[in-house]
Design brief:
Elements (H helix, E strand, L loop, with lengths): L27 H8 L1 H9 L2 H5 L1 H5 L2 H4 L53 H5 L45 H4 L12 H5 L17 E2 L2 E5 L3 H4 L13 H4 L12 H5 L17 E2 L2 E5 L3 H4 L13 H4 L13 H5 L46 H4 L13 H4 L17 E2 L2 E5 L3 H4 L13 H4 L13 H5 L30
Antiparallel strand pairs: 1-2, 3-4, 5-6
Length: 488
């Protein structure tokens, strides 16, 4: 009595003196600490849960760890949800506050055995492969492993400009942190478009604010101001050898290869072109000539019309002088192309109104090009019946005559409607409603009238060989020829 001991103390069940001192005033806590030496050491050194929690230091062990309640009793009575981790050697800070207990405290191990060094848990996150030692907290914080508080400004190479954004591994490959070269070309040799022609002292022109930005002021330090696109042109585009060689400053000196006029308009490129963009021209054809450029003419390159020397060239302005090859009429409509065509486009906004003819364009005909119906320049004498153009699309092969419009309409050849019941004297019912037109209309003819007698179509199905006459409907139905109902 008063009950069996817990499993951990079961071996002392017959040794009461291990935990109790009879007839003496010795505190029971002293006997507990005689066995639990690790806890006693924590209390003495003011560390761990029992040495840091002021409440536990004053409390007797049996207050929390009551025994004699059976082998399976929980004499620890530890509550994870109410436990204050600040009373341990490892207060939870940053991301550790949201970490699950089981991530550090493995099941079955005493809580005091949990690892406390960074590398014990974060070895796989150590990109330095242990080369910088186990003191991870010198650079990293508990808020986030990637957050580094290492102050590079305390080294002999402070990080300025874009160097602040560079990943450590780009300058320290293989976790090498000693004897790292500090010259620009050590890292930026591949970016040196000058190919070392101007030496290794890159900082004379470049800065850490950006490799493309240069401290050299071409407008101030030379006699040639960089305007427009020249301001963003790489140095080596003009300075092929070095900066000492004098370069020509006229347009033709650099842009000879860009001169699509091949010298026909002289070397005063600036009279038409600007430094903003070679393709951008400032020559105003509308004001400087008697032929204003409108519509598609605005997009035409100069050489398309001006094929000779500009100084003595006089171009003609009649449409056919340039567009004769595009004249599908081959001159039969005269030279006044502008009567139908406009500068918006040779085929755009043709002013000819086809609705004034005997064949107004409706449906898909309105989207057809002139050449679809008028393959030649002859516009008269074109047949207007459907089969003249659509004979290849006539699946009936002439068996239903030439009046295609009786079923089809101009919106689309596939859009058709014909009510056989209303427009003929033979309503299509039952099996007849599933037939195709050419099942009955088998020969090409303009006369669509055919016999409606059963025997004319079903002669081969008549097992009576005509003995009962032509009125098959007396016994057979339109649902099926084999469906027989003898009418009396």
């Amino acid at each position: 009595m008063p009950g069996k001991l817990a499993s951990a103390h079961a071996k002392y069940e017959e040794q009461c003196a291990k935990c109790h001192t009879p007839l003496r005033d010795t505190p029971q806590k002293t006997l507990c600490l005689d066995c639990h030496k690790e806890v006693a050491a924590d209390i003495k050194a003011n560390r761990g849960l029992h040495g840091l929690d002021p409440q536990l230091i004053k409390t007797d062990c049996k207050t929390c760890h009551t025994d004699h309640k059976g082998r399976g009793a929980d004499i620890v009575q530890f509550n994870q949800t109410q436990f204050n981790h600040a009373h341990t050697n490892f207060p939870l800070k940053g991301a550790h506050q949201s970490t699950l207990c089981g991530a550090c405290h493995r099941t079955g191990d005493p809580y005091r055995k949990a690892p406390s060094r960074c590398l014990d848990c974060h070895k796989q996150d150590d990109r330095h492969a242990g080369k910088l030692g186990p003191q991870c907290d010198k650079c990293h914080t508990q808020d986030q492993w990637r957050d580094s508080r290492f102050d590079h400004s305390k080294t002999n190479y402070p990080l300025t400009g874009k160097h602040r954004q560079v990943d450590c591994a780009l300058c320290h490959p293989g976790q090498k942190y000693k004897d790292v070269p500090q010259q620009c070309v050590a890292c930026h040799g591949i970016n040196d478009v000058h190919q070392n022609r101007y030496g290794d002292n890159c900082k004379r022109c470049h800065s850490t604010q950006g490799w493309k930005g240069t401290a050299f002021d071409h407008d101030r330090d030379t006699h040639y101001k960089l305007l427009g696109r020249h301001a963003t042109t790489p140095c080596q585009s003009c300075h092929n050898a070095d900066f000492k060689t004098k370069l020509a400053t006229d347009c033709y000196g650099c842009h000879r290869a860009d001169d699509e006029h091949q010298g026909r308009y002289g070397k005063q490129c600036q009279s038409c072109h600007t430094p903003e963009r070679w393709a951008k021209k400032q020559f105003d054809h509308d004001k400087a000539t008697k032929f204003p450029l409108r519509g598609k003419h605005r997009d035409v390159i100069c050489g398309a019309c001006h094929k000779g020397p500009a100084s003595n060239e006089k171009n003609k302005t009649a449409c056919r002088q340039c567009h004769a090859s595009a004249d599908i009429h081959r001159g039969s409509q005269g030279d006044k192309c502008e009567r139908c065509h406009s500068e918006a486009g040779w085929r755009d906004r043709v002013v000819f109104d086809h609705d004034t003819t005997r064949f107004p364009l409706i449906g898909l005909h309105a989207a057809a090009t002139c050449a679809d119906c008028h393959p030649t320049s002859e516009y008269k004498g074109i047949k207007s019946n459907c089969l003249a153009c659509h004979s290849a699309q006539d699946k009936h092969k002439g068996r239903l005559g030439e009046k295609c419009e009786a079923c089809h309409n101009p919106n689309d050849w596939r859009f058709w409607q014909f009510d056989h019941s209303q427009e003929t004297k033979f309503s299509l019912r039952e099996a007849h409603a599933k037939l195709r037109c050419d099942d009955c209309h088998r020969s090409a003819t303009n006369n669509l009238k055919i016999s409606s007698a059963c025997g004319d179509c079903h002669r081969a199905d008549d097992v009576h060989d005509g003995e009962f006459g032509q009125r098959c409907e007396r016994c057979h139905s339109e649902r099926s020829f084999k469906d027989i109902t003898i009418k009396r």
